[in-house]
Design goal:
heterotrimer, A mainly alpha (237), B alpha/beta (258), C mainly alpha (277), B: D-Maltodextrin-Binding Protein, domain 2, five-stranded mixed sheet, 10 helices, 13 strands, globular, disordered N terminus, C: mainly alpha, 2 domains
Chain lengths: 237, 258, 277
């Protein structure tokens, strides 16, 4: 039996390089999903607090569906379903064409829609925490609707929404592990391959779990720094 | 012709980028699993190896195309083919009536019978339904072996595993009383140090409706030109000795069957 | 924008009358709602066109048993988690630094790592310690995949529930404790009769959310060979390659989650009646 240190070493003998690649995939997936999720989440929140009923309804349907489905199922629906759907649409125009939705993009879309439906709730409650007077003040000094949003509301919104969004980031980081089920070589999948080849399941799954823990701790530190930074701005004002 | 078509990964831009851009060299993308030794297996430095891989390489050489291998989870390998992630599956996939409803197959490129592995100290000595009554049997999900188990061993619990290696773990630690798989995959494992826990309980007589005539190359429905080329290539490597060379590298007998 | 500078209107802000005509928001809204409607019609049409009675009768019983396994798994692990969460929450609020650190580490570990990784660790990881587990008589428990899932889920939800419990108890003002103390009410009785009823109102919604998260999270047990709803779905899909297998699962999960959500709303409505004026 090989020693633990050989198994966790870098190079052809050990699995550290494979797992490091998994960490790279996991982190890049989470980072790629974040802006997508934030953007959609923000738009959904704007739609939800709109006075236009139809816009609200459309947004409500969106969050009901994607908060109600298991993340794993959403992932499968996107991975297999979107693929088949897009394929059929494209074939309609060009019968020999093929379109590929790779597992990274599928993962990004699936995690992005889930993230955005939770983020919209965070943004929405942040919106509600901002008094109407802020908008009215903005309009009163002649700012347009968009300018008011960008210059007056958004800076406050970010500050209020930050703790909620930070929490969602930690959830996102954990949810990325689901992409291992559609074959993306993230941390958990690489650990799984190592575990079944070496038969050292506890070692590698334990190791993978500790990496996630380390990522969570790093994120917490990072979030703490951002929060302090944002907090300082408030004091300066 | 669809090979060498430039395929964009991003979904949105793909819609606009459908104009075919023929590459210099024709490329056939081959989907395989990479978790089924000795047929296809990923090494610890991420390379694919095994009988399927060598055969695929030989076929591509014969067809004068370049092979690109894509490792894909077994569970989703047919949907991935249909979705165009690759052009052919060479992954020890048995030609079955159920699969023929979804994809087309080349002729078989090998055929070996299924078998049943049990722990060394097991009291199971046969492969009949009554031998396994009340036992727990593991098999890889979405395989002929899994289907055979659920259909045949109706008095037993049948558990699906994502790859062969997981049922091996569970057979070794005693969660499973038996595992059903291809006889070669089983013997390869049983002969290795990892398989020391277990032994072969017997060979299962293949059932045509479930196991089919052997392992073939799966391609999307209706792509008969590609299928014919694969068939011709299989024929050619059988005749020019390339097949025998690969066969002898892995096995001590002819896996092509009769 | 709305003209609310009228002094009488400051008491109750009236929403401005909905704009008439076709402002941009309305156009976008109608288009989106139309797209959703199209998607639903498409879904129904697809399910109707793909409807095969023999397939339904072949696989429907499997789906039912899958739903039952999912419900059983979630119900039992949430209950065990609730029991475990009490000492953990107590530990989190403890003044003893060792106990507090330990409880914090527990909570951080289970909340900081993916449930899927925890499930793998228990199922395959513990599997490699069979001789040791056999020696202490625990193997017969961990042999079963369902029990492994139950074990991992219970520990996981205990961490989340402990935080909910702690948050709820700490949300009750200190004055409530002091008031009870000055009346000579024992601490345990204070907790049970005064603090707990107030904390429950705060905790209800998070508890409901946790329950929903568990239902959704339970789908991952399909990967460790449990035939829950997701497991049955994957099995059906691998047999038929028919995409409606996943669509039916989606519909069932949505029904379960929406039922739970409305149940929580209803309970909240009931127990906060005294707060409404």
């Amino acid at each position: 039996m090989q020693s633990v240190w050989t198994l966790l070493s870098w190079g052809p003998e050990g699995w550290l390089d494979e797992i490091a690649y998994g960490v790279f995939i996991t982190v890049s997936l989470a980072l790629a999903t974040l802006p997508l999720g934030l953007l959609i989440g923000f738009l959904i929140a704007v739609a939800k607090q709109s006075q236009e009923r139809s816009l609200k309804l459309a947004a409500d349907i969106y969050t009901t569906i994607f908060r109600g489905l298991p993340e794993l199922l959403t992932l499968f629906l996107v991975f297999y379903g979107a693929q088949i759907g897009i394929q059929q649409v494209v074939r309609f125009f060009n019968p020999t064409a093929s379109v590929e939705v790779n597992s990274f993009v599928s993962g990004m879309i699936a995690l992005g829609v889930v993230f955005s439906s939770y983020a919209s709730e965070v943004f929405l409650s942040a919106f509600r925490a901002i008094p109407r007077g802020q908008y009215e003040g903005g309009y009163a000094i002649g700012l347009s609707k968009f300018q008011t949003m960008r210059l007056v509301v958004l800076p406050q919104l970010v500050r209020i929404a930050l703790p909620g969004l930070a929490n969602l980031w930690l959830i996102l980081l954990k949810d990325t592990s689901l992409v291992s089920a559609i074959g993306l070589t993230d941390i958990l999948r690489q650990a799984g391959v190592a575990a079944r080849v070496t038969k050292q399941a506890f070692l590698f799954f334990g190791f993978a779990t500790l990496i996630y823990l380390a990522l969570a701790i790093l994120s917490s530190i990072g979030i703490g720094l951002i929060e302090r930074h944002v907090g300082k701005q408030e004091v300066q004002r | 012709m669809r090979f060498g078509r430039y395929v964009l990964i991003a979904t949105a831009s793909a819609l606009f980028a459908l104009g075919s851009a023929h590459a210099q060299e024709e490329v056939v993308r081959i989907g395989t699993e990479g978790a089924y030794p000795p047929f296809n297996n990923l090494t610890s430095d991420g390379k694919l190896e095994g009988f399927d891989i060598d055969i695929a390489q030989a076929l591509c050489d014969e067809m004068k195309v370049r092979c690109e291998f894509v490792a894909q989870e077994w569970d989703g390998i047919i949907p991935a083919l249909q979705a165009g992630k690759f052009d052919a599956i060479i992954a020890s996939m048995s030609i079955t009536p159920e699969r023929l409803e979804q994809v087309d197959f080349s002729n078989k490129y090998y055929n070996t019978p299924p078998g049943l592995a049990v722990p060394k100290d097991s009291d199971i000595n046969g492969v009949g339904k009554e031998d396994l009554a009340g036992k727990t049997i593991g098999a890889q999900a979405s395989t002929t072996h899994f289907n055979y188990s659920t259909v045949t061993y109706t008095d037993s619990t049948v558990k699906p595993y994502p790859t062969a290696q997981e049922y091996q773990l569970d057979l070794a630690n005693g969660r499973l009383d038996a595992a059903n798989d291809d006889i070669i995959a089983l013997t390869q494992w049983l002969d290795s140090p990892d398989g020391a826990c277990c032994r072969l309980a017997g060979t299962i007589t293949p059932v045509d409706e479930i196991h089919g005539p052997g392992a073939g190359i799966a391609i999307r429905k209706g792509e008969t030109a590609l299928r014919d080329r694969f068939n011709a290539a299989i024929q050619a490597i059988r005749e020019n000795g390339k097949y025998k060379e690969i066969n002898d590298k892995y096995f001590s007998f002819d896996v092509y069957g009769d | 924008m709305s003209a609310v500078d009228h002094p009488a209107a400051t008491e109750a802000l009236r929403p401005p009358p909905p704009p008439r005509g076709w402002p941009r928001e309305r156009v976008i809204g109608y288009i989106l709602v139309f797209l959703w409607a199209l998607a639903f019609v498409g879904l129904v049409a697809y399910l109707v066109s793909a409807w095969k009675p023999d397939m339904f009768w072949r696989y429907a019983p499997g789906y039912l048993s899958g739903v039952w396994v999912t419900i059983k798994l979630v119900a039992i692990s949430v209950m065990i988690g609730a029991l475990l969460s009490v000492p953990i929450a107590y530990g989190r609020m403890s003044r003893n630094p060792i106990i507090a650190t330990f409880a914090y580490a527990y909570v951080y570990f289970f909340r900081g790592t993916p449930l899927l990784a925890q499930a793998f660790l228990v199922y395959y990881g513990f599997g490699s310690f069979r001789p040791q587990l056999d020696a202490i008589g625990l193997w017969s428990f961990f042999r079963d995949a369902f029990n492994c899932a139950l074990f991992a889920f219970s520990l996981n939800t205990a961490a989340y529930q402990a935080e909910i419990l702690r948050g709820a108890i700490q949300s009750v003002p200190k004055g409530q404790w002091e008031g009870a103390e000055s009346l000579g009410i024992p601490r345990l009785l204070t907790l049970r009769k005064i603090i707990f009823p107030q904390a429950l109102i705060v905790a209800l919604r998070p508890y409901g959310n946790e329950l929903i998260l568990m239902v959704k999270g339970s789908a991952i047990v399909a990967i460790i060979t449990v035939y829950d709803l997701m497991g049955v779905t994957r099995l059906t899909y691998s047999r038929t390659f028919d995409f409606q297998a996943y669509l039916w699962a989606a519909i069932i999960y949505l029904l379960i989650v929406e039922t739970l959500r409305h149940a929580v709303d209803w309970v909240e409505e009931r127990i906060t009646r005294h707060l409404r004026r």
